[in-house]
Amino acid sequence: MNSSGFTGQLKLGTRQPPRLARVPDFSPMARLGGFLATGLRDVTRDPAALDSTGWWAVVAGDDGAPLCARFADVRPAPPPAVVPGRWRGPHRDAWSSSLDRAAYMAGVTRVREHIAAGTVYQVNLCRVLSAPLPPGPEPDIDALTALLAHGHDARHAGTVRLPAHGVEIATASPELFLGRRGDLVESGPIKGTARTADAFLPKDRAENVMIADLVRNDLGRVCAPGSVTVPGLCVPEPYPGLVHLVSTVAGRLTPGAGWPALLDAAFPPGSVTGAPKSSALRVIAELETAPRGPYCGAVGWVDADRGTAGLAVAIRTFWLDRSAGTPVLRFGAGAGITWDSDPAGEWAETELKAARLLAIASAPDGTDGGARVDGHRDEQRDESREPSWR
């Protein structure tokens, strides 16, 4: 985000799509929520379209209104198959960060100064990692999704491939932003990350409670009075290489509240901004030196015919940037900063979140990079918490 980014409400049409140096010859598709969608029908930046008909892939970032793409052919699909050599990732040493260790730690210190001054209570401070892809065939982002699916199991993993619109995303997001079944809406903010469940600090729980309350207030803007509840608070969930604290916030939408109102109330996600949200966004604009792009936005699907949806927070997410000619792979990592934050510890948290995924993406043929790709999961998530709209 930068000085023209969000200020607490969804900005509509504030930026033009990126001008691409070249558009690869890949057909539009989306692999989300256990579905494979092909046969692109139309694309719009108007979120009111999500209240119409059809099945939509949705990507919302810091570049304006959400991109909504309706597909004609939607069918259940198994996870994508790993084909050796299909994905040629960057060299492991090619990654650079928008904030190096010293700059990130200085940013953490500056956030603590804002907290001491009473400006904010918490801020999610992020950095964007970038690496040029090697010469050769045009990279297919869905091939990276296949590696992620086999090497880093995630509840909201998927692909959105719309090259003509500058959108090529592979996500391994574990976090639910908005799930819907009719007028029932649910969010699953994640705050608190540790290597093991017994390694959480008091700061992690406090941060999670703070953001769960923020999400409760966001949903309360469009939900019936008294309907917003917190069915789960600070529940540990294991994922490959780490454990998160996850809360669940649910409510019932007021009659007539459609997608424009819901996105206006809830976007950008509270877990990747801070509290109060509007003040946190101003601090983010002050400290972050690179646009977040789709990172920390939302990616997912909406079935307007059935009144269901599953939008994830776009964390653990890669995206291709072709605007400069040579394709560049980007990835974001961040941490929630509170008064109790230790700058070195917060930098280490961003490293922990990024390490496994960067190793997978940097493996040129899917056979190295520190991740198994033969279907093995070295840690299994709790399937009993699988969302009902999946």
How would you describe the overall organization of this protein?
By secondary structure, the protein is α+β, with helices and mostly antiparallel strands. The chain has a single domain (29-367), classed as Anthranilate synthase (4-Layer Sandwich), CATH 3.60.120.10. Helices cover 22% and strands 32% of the residues. It has an 18-stranded antiparallel sheet that branches. A hairpin with a 2-residue loop joins β12 (229-239) and β13. α1 (101-116) crosses α6 (343-361). It is globular.
What percentage of the residues does DSSP assign to strands (E)? 25-35%
Overall CATH architecture: 4-Layer Sandwich
Task: Please report the number of helical segments.
Answer: 6
Please report the first level of CATH classification, the CATH class: Alpha Beta
Fraction of residues in H or I helices = 10-25%
- Could you give me the name of the CATH homologous superfamily? Anthranilate synthase
Mean pLDDT: 88
Q: CATH fold name, please?
A: Anthranilate synthase
List SSEs in N-to-C order.
EEEEEHEHEEEEEHEEHEHEEEEH
Unreliable segments of 5+ consecutive residues: 1-16, 365-390
Radius of gyration: 19 Å
The termini sit apart by 30 Å
Write down how many β-strands occur, each being a DSSP E stretch of 2 or more residues. 18
Strand count, sense and barrel status of the largest sheet are: 18 strands, antiparallel
